[in-house]
Design brief:
single chain, 88 residues, mainly alpha, 2 strands
Amino acid sequence: MTTADLSRVIQGVAAGIGFLGAGTILKLEEQHRIEGLTSAASVWVTAAVGMSVGAGWIWPAVVGVIWGWVILSIIHYVEQYLRKKQEP
């Protein structure tokens, strides 16, 4: 596979994942909240790791998984802290 072919595959996957990620985001009018951003980001990370593994770049995929896990864990704890702070 040439570099041009690989870039077209990556472009197609990125476009498809963009639509899939956008479908996971919900805007709740009554509560004035937006939900699903973390899920959409997780879908992007999963797609990027899958493309890295598919291209044979194992170590960048491992680093991406570790960073994604760390960032999502931090966001989870911050979200829990903010929700406890908002409760009466």
